[in-house]
Amino acid sequence: MAYEVGSKYHGFILKEEREVKDISSVCRLFEHEKTGARLLYISNDDENKVFSITFRTPPTDDTGVPHILEHSVLCGSRKFPTKEPFVELLKSSQHTYLNAATYPDKTMYPVASMNNKDLQNLMDVYLDAVFYPNIYKKKEIFMQEGWHYELKDKEDNLKYKGVVYNEMTGILSDPMQTLANKSFKYLYPDTCYSSESGGDPEKIIDLKYEDFLEFHKKYYHPSNSYIYMYGDGDIDTYLSFVDKEYLSEFERKEIDSNIKLQQGFEAMREYESEYPISKDEDEKDKSYFALSFVAGNALDRELALALEILGDILMGNNSSPLKKVLLESGIAKDFALDAGGDPTLQPSINIIAFEANNKNKDKFKNIVFESLEKLITEKINPELIEGAINKKEFILREANAGSEPKGCVYNGEVLKTWLYDGNPIDAIEYGKQLDIMKNKCVDGYFENIIETYILNNKHAVYVILNPKKGLADKKLKEENKMLAKLKKLMNKDKINELVEDTNKLIELQGLEESKEDLDKIPRLAISDIKKESNWIDLEEKDVDGVKTLYYGQATNKIMYITLKFDLKTVDKELLRYLTLFKVMLGELSTKNFKYEELAKTIDKNIGHLRVMTRNVINFDDSDQYEPQLVIATKGLVTKTKEMLEIVNEIIQNTVFNESSKIHEIIRMLISKIKSSITNSGAGVALDKLASSFMESAKYNEYISGLGFYEFLIDLDKNFDSRIEEIKQNLEKMKDIVFNKKYMSMLVVCEKGDYKVFLDNISIVTKNIEVKEIEKKVYVFEEDSKRIGLTTQSNVQYVAKGYNYKKLGYKYSGQYIIIKKILEFDYLWVEVRVKGGAYGSAISNSCFGNFIIFSWEDPNLKETLDIYDNAYKYLEELKIDRNDMEKYIVSTIGELDRPFSTQYQKASSFEAKMVTGITKEIEQRIRAEILEMTEDDVKGFGKILKEIMEQGYICVLGNETNINKNKELFDKVERVK
């Protein structure tokens, strides 16, 4: 169908139509005539269709009302009155993406699906949720998702509870999150960005129900909306649906949601603040510094892109000019620069130091300014600029969105202009901006940006975040004392009212949904899904004596080459050095390149180079595993020769004699692991738990877990006395690992380009020797079954589980459905809704692990009790065929989720093949899902009971809470 600018289509007037070759799409910008709702449709041949609706939601305080509202509107609506339509969609739809997100100035509700009918179902539920939520009828939604006083019995201690309250309690335990929040608050003091849109727990408790409702009335209106659609769907059908079912019911309304500009400062402002560490922890070298500068306006897309490229020039790798100087100064363990990427009206440049000594705060600032002044005087090396632009261009060409649909990524991009009344299409026309930059960069373009937006910029803040021993415990005690005092001041009637409200909420949370309400949630039928698996075959070849898997598909002229080396040849006494070795490849000098030159050469010729380790576990025997070192590289086909020359240089010629550089990398690793403990507490608990009973997990824990973290801390502390030992062991590692006998490859490219690979791969393979080294059998110490890991977080990450294959059971596709039933029907209600944790889920692998875990959880023992009783829930569950089909449909949708790139697809199937999963096994797993019955669900109850009876637990979290429950643990350790 041809569209004409100025014409009306189902209530929408087409304002602009533009082809955007950069993303192979036609963009059509509409405005709804009656309401003023804006709609952008990006039309292309991508089957992974996306819909989202976004509202400008500028906060005015730290009560977190945008965030609480984001949670709450998805708790039932006019057409879909179930308590959790969002969860019902998770259970029953074939979504490829389903989410909601709160930003500093907007709230977004995105969904995606490969199926046209399914996408329209998702649109229907989401539009009804945002425009007609049940929050006006049920105050309990606000209490559950936001906050309330909990008092189950009049003799109990008074507590604060709420999903967002507990989520933000966990998030704000992270010093990096605190640093970012403080920087925003001080950089934009007179705008919405000075408020924490997610909510500060100390302020969330000030939010009143009436103000919560008023926020929705004001901002959740079509006149304040930005509707986005993407993919190969039928525009006419979707426009008709959105207008007829929703927008036509509203009138245009004037809404003051404009984001205000922050006026500049007369001089840089400096602030100091605190974050908590344990009372037993040393405060030395635990400060964080952030130099932040406001840089232009989001509508200047050329500048925004230039800032991102400048960030890569200055600190993209350890040899980048600013990062190199900072690392060599030794004033902090690591440094980072974020520029232009934040979705705000006024982008910022943020230069950050991790884990520094407070006495070096002036030195950090001086080094940054002096280094940048020197860079302007001496000029930026043109090769650095060329490399950074090439890297950005490659990223844009590949359009690798990871696990997200590409349409969701473009949604975020268009809002960077659209939300501020700019043209959304301008934000995704990358080619023009890159061409401008290529032409300008030779004339001091980036030097001018440094001078204007950093050196001469007074609209800046310097935030110093210092550690404070026992701060978390102090705040917790103050909170408990205040709550006790508050309760003491209450009369009997008020106490009885709170007890009644608490138990009424618990009762409502436990009520079963009516079948009538559940049936209102639209869903696909089993007849709408494919019965056959989407298996792909990779061609197996012998290339220069190396087993090679090949996948020939359209890749936009990108060559993907992955080299794999078996690591079972490494002696156990060297294993602790493996992660160090992996990280140093490409970061140290080689015989022919100083590391600065190597980095420039990589950026000029390679789209991406990554060195990692992985563990290939045997599908039939989960105690059998093959660890591998993986070198994954990708670049334009025309650069294949240069790409392989660089890989060969790294493999053959890396030298481990740069002591100061090695020390820098050790300190950076310590900082990164420490940050991951705070940011990914659930993952740490899962990995530690699995290492108590699974051989491959013991290996992973040994080379990269908490034991390795302590090993690094010791290396750092005793570096001068151990440096020679470190160098020798890294050299030994190189000699052992790169062995043609235990090497394999994966190559993905267009069929016509495979010859380019064959013509050049000998650059690498001819230099790798065949070495007769025996594989080792590793024996690791047994760890405790019940482990407590204490941190300064105010919440817990609670994990419990075991490996059912060790109990004699085999993997079944039905276990995927069991996981979903428990997650969405049991754990969601018991751990999240009733318990107040931000979330709870199950790690269920085809290798036999079945582990239940929670995150941002205020509870500990109560959560473990919920896990222990999960088997009863399954045994007593009544689930008819209609309900079972919901799970079957969504599970098949999960299996059939598309990949962002052909390499991702090939890599996924290569991983299956090397573990022993075949096309037949894949089809069997699919058949098991399609044939799932109620009896199968009940039958797993017995298995789950056995899993829980093994008694393996790991809890990472608040020191006081873990020590209060010491009897639950065999071992309690403080995470350093």
Tell me what you see in this structure.
This protein is of the alpha+beta class and 976 residues long. It folds into four domains: 36-157 and 196-259 and 511-518, 2-Layer Sandwich (Cytochrome Bc1 Complex, Chain A, domain 1), CATH 3.30.830.10; 269-404 and 413-468, 2-Layer Sandwich (Cytochrome Bc1 Complex, Chain A, domain 1), CATH 3.30.830; 555-681 and 694-765, 2-Layer Sandwich (Cytochrome Bc1 Complex, Chain A, domain 1); 786-974, Cytochrome Bc1 Complex, Chain A, domain 1. Strands 1, 2, 3, 4, 5, 6, 7, 8 and 11 form a nine-stranded mixed beta sheet that branches. A six-stranded mixed beta sheet has the order 17-18-22-19-21-20, sandwiched between helices. β1 and β2 (12-20) form a beta hairpin.
What is the structure about, briefly put?
The protein has 976 residues and is α+β, with helices and mostly antiparallel strands. 45% of the residues lie in helices and 20% in strands. The strands form 5 sheets. Strands 1, 2, 3, 4, 5, 6, 7, 8 and 11 form a 9-stranded mixed β-sheet that branches.
Intertermini distance: 63 Å
Number of helices: 37
Biggest β-sheet description: 9 strands, mixed
Radius of gyration: 28 Å
Features of the shown structure:
alpha+beta, Cytochrome Bc1 Complex, Chain A, domain 1, 4 domains, 9-stranded mixed beta sheet, 6-stranded mixed beta sheet, 37 helices, 28 strands
